[in-house]
Amino acid sequence: MTAAIAGPLVEARSLSRSYRLGESVVPAVRDVSLAIAPGEFVALRGPSGSGKTTLLNLLGLLDRPDEGSVRVGGRDGEALTEEERSDLRRDRFGFVFQTFNLIPVLSAEENVAYPMALAGASAARRRERARELLAAVGLSVKLGVRPDLLSGGQRQRVAIARALANAPSIVFADEPTANLDSHTAEEILDLMRRINAERGVAFLFATHDALVVSRARRVVTLHDGAIASDAAA
Amino acid sequence: MSSLALAWRNLVRQKRRSFLMIAVVTFGFAAFALAGGFIAQSFEGLREGTIKSVGDLQIVDRRAVGKAEEATLEYGLPDARRARALAAADPDVAAVLPRIDFVGLMTTGAKSVPFLGVGVDPGPEAAATLVPELIVSGKYLAGDGGDGVVLGTGLAAALNVKPGDRVTMMATTPDGSLNALDGIVTGLADVRIKELNDRYVAAGVGLVSRLLQSGDTVSKLVVFLKPGADEDRAAERLAKAMAAGGYPIVVRHWRELATFYEQVKLLYVGIFGFVGAVLVVIVILSAAIVMTMAVTERTREIGTLRAIGTRPSGIRTMFLAEGVVIALAGCVAGTILALIVRAALNASGIMLPPPPGATHGMPINVKLYPLAYGAGLLAMVLTMAIASYFPARRAARMPIVEALAHV
């Protein structure tokens, strides 16, 4: 289980981020402030180009803002070195991507064990926990199988198990159902809801999938890089 | 999953590319090991040949160092028998050979040719040096040499003489008068340096002493040490013993006398260094291209690894490890290749052209020289590490978001 943390897990304060596109500068996120509390199940929605993925990347410490700051467990993410931000992502965060992003040369079990190896867990501990997590996502029979031999839904389950490897307090999921058929997408969302309920892990989705939005308990709507609405579902 | 294990998996995934890169290292390493073995063999042969000619040490009059004699035996060692016995008493000394260097004119009556002569003690000289092996016609000097002389084939051709023919040697004595003696050609030697071959004469010290009227004076004592003897310590002891015996001498080492050896060695080291540098550059360029391609192809994977908590240093280590694994695999294969090629070359009997100044080539003989293999391993590992460093650094510095979005 995730350790209890007082206050928000992740907090964005007046975040702004722009990208250069040829000669022009395109603002992706504009003056966004947002806090995610422990155990939340939040969807960031909005049309393409509204800044969902950019905001998710900033909150997940994958990118640095032009202005504003991201605080993780009370620590200012912008004041940290790349090595410290890596350690924070490894220990506190989990990531699930639209294209699954598993390491192709590793088996399902090794993919799940990899973040634990980064954290210095023993081989026995990694093996035990990887098997436990793969059983929890229904893939006990696929331990030694490489990602290219798994279906899309199975790959996303392995990715979810990997995201949970180091018992994170929050999982960032960027369009996790976009490459799945509707039935598999529903199964994956059910799995995430169950993990959220049973393990207390918060989830933050960037999505424009209505199914994901319908399952969220809080929906933040972005429009042109700014928060248009933030409401409980 | 260690960085090395992950590196190995990635190399296995990219079989064709990894094979090509390992092949480059394999050939580079094998070339390194074979060239090193060949050069080591050449050095050893050159060293042995040099020592067989000039001895491990030479005892000469102190005044002879760096000076040319204006008169015959001007700086000779008098009372040579006693000096020889003194030197031979050293526990590390295997043989002490007296030599008298002299110049003169050799004639058959019809023709006269200047010569460079050496007076020797034939028995020990034959045992310790290569001269008897150079005899191509007739025999080397026997016993104390008697009236026998050995001529270089070039000199014999110039004089038109053969074994059994009589020749007359003329030379100046230490007091400046001219003396002449007859000698009988016992054999012809093919001395491997052409200029010397055209002038070479060897005769017993007895005959030469009579010709020069020099009594018991010799030019030098050539000392051969027992195998494994410490050259420096032996030289020190000999210098003390000879000084105590009343001889104002210096002991010279073979390296001081064989400037040719050092020049050839420098030439070989230069050639080897150049070839090695070319090999290293080829391996670095090939490896850098392959590693850059690997980084580009795995950009999204790098983004994923960074996202889930791999530190930039971890990414750098992973790609460096791939380079090192390629180097190690290439060195293992290169060792096998080098051993096969070495065996084939040594069995081939290929003759190498003669080195500068020599008249004969020698069969190729590549030595198994562990230092060359060790140096090859070090060079390949360092080369691959250097070649991998910049692509690895690029991978480690890649912005995560850009890497994740890479198509």
Please explain how this structure is put together.
The complex is a heterodimer of chains A (233) and B (407). With 233 residues, chain A is α/β, with parallel strands linked by helices. Chain A contains 7 helices and 10 strands. Chain A has a 6-stranded mixed sheet with strand order 6-7-8-3-9-10, with helices on both faces. In chain A, a hairpin with a 2-residue loop joins strand 1 (10-21) and strand 2. In chain A, helix 3 (108-118) crosses helix 4, helix 3 (108-118) runs parallel beside helix 5 (152-163) and helix 5 (152-163) runs parallel beside helix 6. The longest helix of chain A has 18 residues, at 182-199. The model of chain A has no long low-confidence stretch (mean pLDDT 92). By secondary structure, chain B is an alpha+beta fold. Helices cover 55% and strands 19% of the residues of chain B. Chain B has helices at residues 3-13, 15-54, 80-88, 122-128, 153-159, 194-197, 205-212, 231-244, 254-257, 259-297, 299-307, 312-348, 370-397, 400-404, and strands at residues 57-61, 93-107, 112-120, 135-138, 148-152, 166-172, 178-189, 200-204, 220-225, 249-253, 351-352, 362-363. Chain B has a 6-stranded mixed β-barrel, surrounded by 4 helices. In chain B, strands 11-12 form a two-stranded antiparallel sheet. The radius of gyration of chain B is 31 Å and the shape is elongated. The mean pLDDT of chain B is 89. The A-B interface holds A 57, 60, 62-63, 82-83, 86-87, 89-91, 93-95, 97, 99, 101-106, 110, 113-115, 117-119, 162-163, 166 and B 1-2, 6, 9-10, 12-13, 300-301, 303-314, 399-401, 404.
